[in-house]
Structure formats: structure tokens, C-alpha cells
Amino acid sequence: MTAFFQLHRDLPREGPGEAADVAWAADRAGVADTARIVDVACGPGGDIAALLEAAPRGHVTALDLTAHFVDAARARWLDDPRVTLLRADMASIRNEYDFIWCAGAIYFIGITEALTAWRKALRPGGIVAFSEACWFTDTPSDRAVAHWRQYPAMTDADGIAARISAAGFETVASRRLSGAAWETYFGPIDARIAALRPGADVALAAVLDEAEEEAACWRAHSDEYGYLLSVVRPASRSGAGKG
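C-alpha cells predicted for Methyltransferase type 12:
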């Protein structure tokens, strides 16, 4: 874990994403400027600013189970009364919120399991938005399959929709994360790898190699996989359309 944090320490975010993702999801969700929002598995807080932009008179509670990430986020947002940082388990969200945001971390629990658990944390009319790894082809390359071997539950857009439905939710809108969202994550990692590579010991070199391959694989096969951002709500009889 020491080598991992040598690479990831003080990076702006821990996965693909950009402010435009938050703005798009908040717009589709109809987030009010006074909304109570929870950023689940917030990492170092890379989405907090965009969430506050969506609800400038609201409040963001950001939580993560990794103390280092919570400390990093606190250092950035300590003096803002609109933000509360907690070290907490994403499986057990306390209090109630208008908007639950989870960028690239729902796989830790599972889509159906997370949405089922989070339902009680939604205020009436509340919305959940999450991004999840997704296959964009039925015939991915061997390299892409090897990269995602440790996540056998990865599925396609239809599979994600089925897991949403299994939790008693419906999709309001969905879209793929852009290439810019991925480069927002990979760019700082590229720079950190270059800085750490000289003199890296065996453990650190292995972590750098893995991170380098992650970026290279996506850049070579971005047409085969990515993240799908879904905006969902508890199902109603009226139904919902994808956008």
C-alpha cells in the first residue's frame, strides 16, 4: 500500500471524471441550488467543487473509507461551511439527501446492492448518479479482457440497466464519460509516473508499471470500454426515458 500511495498521494482525483459530468447529471436530476448532496467514496474530493457549483446554496457531505483521501479533501475544503468530510463506509449512508453522487466506486458494493442500501438515504424525489465500468462491444480485445480480469462482474449498458431495475430503480438518463474525463485522471498520473520512475524500488516499479498499462490500454481500446454515467431514481409507474 505504501507504493500505491507514493503514486496516488495528492492527485486531484482517483478515477475518470470531469466537472461536465457532474453538471450534466445534476441537470438531468433537477438538482436544486439548495440541495443536500452526498459524494459517496469521494476520494480526495475531486468532484466537490462541481457539486457545489450545482447547488451553491446547498451542502455537500463527502465520505470515503480511506483516511488519506479524507485528509486530502479536508485540507482543500476545511474552511467551507458548505462541505462536511467524513471517514465512513459507503454501504451505510446516514441522513437523507436530495442527490447521491458516486463516481467510479459503486463496484465495491455492486449496483443492485448499493441502490437498495441507499434508497433509505434519499429524500422524496431524490436521485442517484453513478459511473460504472462498461463494455461497449461484445468482442473486446484480449488486452482489454486481461485488464478487467479482476472485475468479472463488468457488464454492458443493458447489464447495468438490468441491475438498476433489480434494485427497483429506473434510469432517467445515461451517457458515456468522455475522453477528456479519462485524460483528466491519466494526465496527472502520467506526470507522477515520470517523476517517480528514476530510482523506483521493485515494489514501486510494479505499481508504476500497472498504472502505465492502465492508461495505455484505455488509450488503445477506448472504443471497447469506458464508464457509463447513469442518473437513476426509485421506479414509478410513469416510467422514465433514457437521454
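Residues 13-137+151-181+225-233 form a domain with the Rossmann fold fold (CATH 3.40.50.150).
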